[in-house]
Each structure stands twice: as structure tokens, then as C-alpha cells.
Amino acid sequence: MLALVAGALYGLGVSSAWIGRLIPASEGFLADNPSAARALSAAVIAIVIAINWKLLHLLKRNYQIVAVWMELFALLMVFFHSFDLSFAFIAKKIGFLITQGVTTTLFISAISIAIATAIALAGAIAKLSRNGVIYGLATFYTSLFRGLPLLMQIYIIYLGLPQVGYVIGAIPAGILALSLCYGAYMTEIFRAGIESISRGQTEGATALGLSPSQTMGLVILPQAMRVIIPPTGNQFIAMLKDSSLVSVVGVWEIMYLARTQGQTEFRHIEMLITASMIYWILSISLEFLQARIEERFGRFNVR
């Protein structure tokens, strides 16, 4: 395995420049023997990875997770540091990026998530209906909005609706496009979750005298949520990131501000990395919330 890792690193063209920085006296040898220097660099890195692997296995599982996160985050920061970033510029712009960009992004995402959830529930019930008209409407909707790229949907709503006499603002257009697009994807998630509950549950609720709406709200959905929540949480995280697409119509969300603020001093990479880190932090927050909700419904299911 050690030889395979070293060979893979060598094949990827790993640089030996870091050896020269650590041992200045070796720079002449490294320059005169590039192939040997690359092989040495690959071998040393492979050995370090192997030692680190062994040391991590001496820790308990929780400490292993923390250690892996810390190591990978440190490597990520080293990678970003190699870009020669201007941290003073980032510090000057990050306040506005958070107060304006994050606020707008969360506002758009929160409303879109709520509307998409309502659309998905209605769409799932419609796809389970025996009424041909309702089923046809639901299937056409999901096929259309899952088949068109989200960026195209934003353009069609923002630029197309005024052609028929309805002028819509940039933020409402973005919210509508996100809601319709992710509502279509989540419709299938809700449908699958509802169908995962055995028919006996519905028959038992009917025998107890519950109406179809009571059966759905009190019996089927609470049990189906354990199946629905994990993929739905993934859709929420994807929606949060895809909200960056509404920047194409001039909405001042994170990505729009990252581009415009970076143009002032030609510091595009600083702003893009900062925006990426903000999106990552927001995604981690959603992952944490999703885990808590899954734990809650999982506990109810055990009961």
C-alpha cells in the first residue's frame, strides 16, 4: 500500500519544492535530478501518510474524527495560503459580505424551502391520486421542472413573465424558481416516503374512523418523515448553494457580492474563497439541524 501511494503521488507529478524549502542545501541536487527528487518527495509524503494513519488508529473513534477534521482543515488552509491571499482585503470586505450577502441568501433560501416543502407535499399526494387529471398535472410539473436547468428557469421567470404582462422583481423571481425546481425534486422524495408506509396503516386508520386527511396527517406522514428527512435535508443544502444562481438577475446575495467586491481591486480569488467558506459554514449548520431532526424522528420511530 505504501508503494502504491508513493507511485500514485509520483504519477500525479508531486512537487519536490517543499524539500528545498525545508533543507536549503538540497536545492542543487533537486534541480539537477528532477525525477529522483520527485520520487523522493512522493516516498516521503507516502511515509508521512502511513505514520499518520497508524497514529490515528491509536485514538478512540471520537478523537479520530476530530483529528481527521483538524488535519484536513489545516491542509485546506495551507492550500489557500499558497494563493498569496490578501487577508487585509478579506477583513475589509467580509463584514459587508456577511451583513448583506448572508442575510439575503438566508432570506431567499428560507422562503424557498418553505414553499418547496408545501409544493412537494401537494405534488406527492397528487401523484398518489387515482384521478387522472390530478396525476397528469403532477407528473407534468415534476417532469418539466426537473428537466430544465435551474438557471434557465430563473431566466424564463424573470424575463418571460414580463412578456405576458406580469413584471416580477429579481428576488421574487429567484424565490419562485428555487421553489418550483426543488419542489419538483422533493415531490418524488415525499412520494417515496409516503409509499414506504404499509397499506395496513391506512386500513387501520380507516377502521378507527379517521378521515383521509387525518390519516395522512396523523398516521402516515409522522412515520414517513424518518424516510423523507435525510434526502430532503440534502435538497435544502443544495438549494442553499444554488441560491447563488439568482445573482445572474442582480440579487445582492453572497456570490453576487463576492464577484462585485473582488472586482474593485482585482482580488477575485480572495472574495470567492471567502464566499466558499461562508457557504460551507451555512451548510454545516444545516447538516447539524438535519442530524437533530433525524435523531428526533428516529427516537419516535423506536417508541
Automatic annotation (TrEMBL):
Keyword terms, alphabetized: Amino-acid transport, Cell membrane, Membrane, Transmembrane, Transmembrane helix, Transport
Gene Ontology CC annotations of this record: ATP-binding cassette (ABC) transporter complex
Main subcellular location of this protein, as a coarse class: membrane
Stretches assigned to the ABC transmembrane type-1 domain: 102-290
Ranges that cross the membrane: 36-56, 68-90, 102-126, 133-158, 164-185
Family: Belongs to the binding-protein-dependent transport system permease family. HisMQ subfamily.
PROSITE patterns assigned: ABC_TM1
Protein name per Swiss-Prot or TrEMBL: Polar amino acid transport system permease protein
Pfam family, one: BPD_transp_1
UniProt source species: Rhizobium rosettiformans
Keyword Cell division: no
UniProt keyword Acetylation, yes or no: no
Signal peptide (UniProt feature, chain positions): none
Gene3D superfamilies cross-referenced by the UniProt entry: MetI-like
A GO MF label: transmembrane transporter activity
Subcellular location: Cell inner membrane; Cell membrane
Superkingdom of this protein's organism: Bacteria
GO biological process: amino acid transport
